[in-house]
């Protein structure tokens, strides 16, 4: 699927990876629309994209916003080639610390937001006889980072949804890419819900020290869509761990990554120690 003249819609397109994706597609000559709840950042990204870009107020927790986006883009552009379900939020805490309310919140945005994006645009893609979903999950959905169960589970569900839709929609000419990055620097920390200031500081540290940038990930995603690839694993360390998890029995996989998990638990403990909880 190559531009120019192609059309892409990016949810959560105001900031971070969504913004970089919008810029990457625009640089290749695609027509770009972004949808977000952060109107200030969306306007700023819209200005960076240039006069042809569309900026929609679109909350992925609202079915009607996604339906309106699909209708508006069909009316304006006559169709859409790629929908990037990127909007997401973060949560961190132990299993005994995260209440149902926070589980519901993260599943509403990270999982059901992607479900709604796919549901709203599938009829249009079917009428067109083609279309492509890019669903932004996370390495967290493939591996099992401690103290992030709600986020991990929301992203694992996005991986499962994407695998299912690849099988389900293939006959309609609709393709799927699922993106599973490790940590990288964006504004995701602003959305982070946690009861632990130490855990918040630890997460901020993980975002900040990433060797991979949002722009690099956006470029990999763009190229994956062009060649019709299913999975994008931008972080080399994540790719290695995922390969080990796929190839080894659970016991051997856990032994192989035990050192990394121990370091991570110690890092979290150090950051939380100042709270007087450890
Ligand atoms: N930053 C990381 O380390 C990392 C790692 C793996 C996966 N991801 C995923 O990448 C995606 C993009 O996140 P980011 O890191 O660029 O963070 P970000 O906070 O910079 O961008 C997320 C965007 O989504 C928007 N958003 C939040 N809730 C929304 C809603 N209900 N409706 C519409 N828009 C909404 C925010 O306003 C923001 O503009 C997310 O799905 C995130 O889970 C991020």
State the CATH topology.
Rossmann fold
Write out the distinct hetero groups bound to the structure.
nicotinamide-adenine-dinucleotide
Q: N-to-C SSE series?
A: EHEHEHEHEHEHHHEHHH
Sheet with the most strands, sense and barrel status: 7 strands, parallel
Termini separation: 52 Å
Per DSSP, the total helix count is 11
- Strand numbers in spatial order across the main sheet: 3-2-1-4-5-6-7
Q: What share of the residues does DSSP label as strand, in percent?
A: 5-15%
CATH architectural type: 3-Layer(aba) Sandwich
Query: What is Rg?
Result: 19 Å
Oligomer: single chain
How many domains? 1
Average pLDDT works out at 95
Tell me, what is the CATH class?
Alpha Beta
Would you identify the CATH H-level superfamily? NAD(P)-binding Rossmann-like Domain
Unreliably modeled segments: none
Give the structural class: alpha/beta
């Amino acid at each position: 699927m190559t531009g120019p003249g192609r059309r892409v819609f990016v949810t959560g397109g105001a900031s971070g990876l969504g913004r970089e994706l919008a810029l990457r597609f625009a640089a290749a000559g695609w027509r770009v629309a972004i949808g977000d709840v952060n109107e200030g950042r969306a306007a700023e990204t819209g200005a960076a994209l240039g006069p042809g870009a569309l900026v929609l107020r679109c909350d992925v927790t609202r079915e009607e916003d996604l339906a309106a986006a699909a209708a508006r883009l069909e009316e304006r552009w006559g169709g859409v080639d790629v929908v990037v379900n990127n909007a997401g939020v973060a949560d961190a805490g132990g299993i005994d610390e995260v209440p149902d309310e926070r589980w519901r919140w993260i599943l509403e945005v990270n999982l059901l937001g992607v479900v709604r994006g796919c549901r709203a645009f599938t009829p249009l893609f079917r009428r067109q006889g083609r279309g492509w979903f890019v669903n932004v999950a996370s390495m967290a959905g493939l591996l099992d980072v401690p103290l992030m169960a709600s986020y991990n589970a929301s992203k694992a569900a996005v991986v499962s949804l994407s695998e299912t839709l690849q099988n389900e929609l293939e006959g309609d000419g609709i393709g799927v890419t699922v993106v599973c990055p490790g940590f990288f620097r964006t504004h995701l920390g602003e959305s982070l819900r946690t009861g632990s200031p130490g855990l918040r500081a630890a997460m901020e540290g993980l975002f900040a020290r990433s060797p991979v940038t949002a722009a690099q990930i956006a470029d990999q995603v763009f190229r994956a869509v062009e060649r019709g690839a299913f999975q994008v694993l931008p972080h080399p360390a994540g790719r290695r761990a995922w390969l080990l998890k796929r190839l080894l029995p659970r016991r051997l996989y856990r032994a192989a990554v035990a050192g990394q998990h121990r370091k991570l638990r110690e890092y979290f403990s150090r950051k939380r120690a100042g709270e007087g909880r450890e």
